[in-house]
UniProtKB/TrEMBL annotation:
Family: Belongs to the bacterial ribosomal protein bL19 family.
Record's keyword terms, sorted: Ribonucleoprotein, Ribosomal protein
GO cellular component: mitochondrial large ribosomal subunit
A Pfam family per the record: Ribosomal_L19
Name the UniProt record assigns to this protein: Large ribosomal subunit protein bL19m
Gene Ontology BP terms: translation
This protein's record includes keyword Acyltransferase: no
Record Gene3D superfamilies: 2.30.30.790
Region described as Disordered: spans on this chain: 116-140
Gene Ontology molecular function, alphabetical: structural constituent of ribosome
């Protein structure tokens, strides 16, 4: 009906606004990302989290993605709202995709499969995700 049209329009215009203030890069589940967000509790005013994107949900303004990493032997997952004003930067460290859309299976795998170095340097990409090369005995 009319109301949903209006809502879609408003969502769309909010997304456009957001895209103008921050570059939202293309990435897929399986990509390695670094997200910097506003953090009032940190001395620098921002905090950065590096991880592998295990899920991405595209739902207009409500789009979210989940990053996973292993810190001090503990699996840590952060869910972000793609268009949240708190996000200062989304950097694609490695554009990579897997066979599945959701990588929840990493939760049951040894830590090494989910560990991403905080110091990881971006790997140049031409906008096409490279396909993940499985290690022996690892799921697709």
């Amino acid at each position: 009906g009319k109301n949903t049209d209006l809502l879609n329009f408003l969502n769309q215009s909010d997304i456009e606004k957001r895209r103008r203030s921050i570059e939202i890069p293309f990435f897929t589940a399986g990509s390695y990302l670094a997200v910097t967000r506003a953090d009032p509790h940190s001395p620098s005013g921002t905090s950065k989290f590096v991880g592998i994107c295990i899920a991405r949900r595209n739902k207009g303004l409500g789009s979210t993605f989940i990053l996973r990493n292993v810190l001090n032997g503990m699996g840590v997952e952060m869910m972000y709202e793609l268009y949240s004003p708190a996000i200062r930067e989304i950097q694609v460290l490695k554009l990579e995709r897997r066979r599945r859309a959701k990588l929840y299976y990493l939760r049951d795998k040894p830590a090494k499969y989910s560990t991403v170095s905080e110091k990881m340097q971006p790997v140049p990409n031409d906008g096409v995700p490279s396909v993940y090369k499985r290690k022996k005995g690892e799921p697709s």
